[in-house]
Amino acid sequence: MTLLTYEEVKNKIGDDKNRALLLGNGFSMSYDEKRFSFANLLDSAIKEDLFGKNSPAYKTFEYVKSVDFEEVIKFLESPTAIEIINSIIVENGKQFKNKDAIIKKLKKILVDVITINHPEGIMNQKSHHAFCFIGYYKKIYTLNYDLLLYWLCLKLLNLNALEKYHLFDDNNQILLLKVNDGFFKEPYNLDTYFCNNETKQTIFYLHGGLHIYNKQNNIIKITHSKEQQKLSDQIRQNIKQDNYPLFVSEGSSDNKKNKITNNNYLNHCYKNLANGGGENSHLVIFGTKLKTNDNHIKDIILKGKFENIYIGIKNIDEKELFADFEDSGKNIIYYDYQTVKVWG
Fold this sequence. Notes:
Strand 9, helix 16 and strand 10 form a beta-alpha-beta unit. It contains 16 helices and 10 strands. The protein has 344 residues and is an alpha/beta fold. It has a 6-stranded parallel β-sheet, sandwiched between helices.
């Protein structure tokens, strides 16, 4: 069996308009691996002195033998974590008792270091290729926290507004995506609020994002137009004030799902993934292996209404990571994600 190319996937989908895209960190890594890899994030956290190599947090990374923040947090969430930590860590001669403090610190460090490493914008020469990639789909679901998709959508909206006509890809096909992230500007108020009655939403941040915040009983989106200030600067100011964005960085799938179902915005996005699809529907998965800490996403796809699932993998051996998909009764197709030229 050989893997399909991405173009062959699109040929299989054909003229069916009911198609959606699920993005993982590979989407951001393909833009700039140095900025968005977990290994680089961990190195940056050390360089920025967010924690030291003798700290309990860093020692836990060494014990788990991983650079993945979520894997380390998952370990810390386990019942035996404190006993193990205290067998390898002694801080000023005292036993470390509060693993929740390490978990909280790691979640904050993850937001801090992603913000520090984040580019200030998307290079224009890469935008057109990315427009064609995301514009092919009717809906986009993303597991990423960063601003790349948000910036692309803003550029796409501005181009449509300026040009007064549909954008076309390199094959002269009209781009399908109509950008709508479910937020709206309330009259006489500068904040941009999420409206869970919005039926035309097409962009879904399943795990939150740097630009999304809880504000009292509302979920808001920060924008450049509100403050006439770069989003990255607004995010840094919020962090300095200990106001952190809506992030699902829990370690285990159960804990992630619990956070999702207890937040109005996240739960709305999660339900849409479950209820999306239908007859002649297609879901293309790009940039994620849906590891065990994302089982809540995998489960909802398998129980959901998408009929045809296209999974991007590097080689045929990685099919084993998706063995449970094979027994789902859905049409499962594997393609080589390396043939996807997202950014040109």
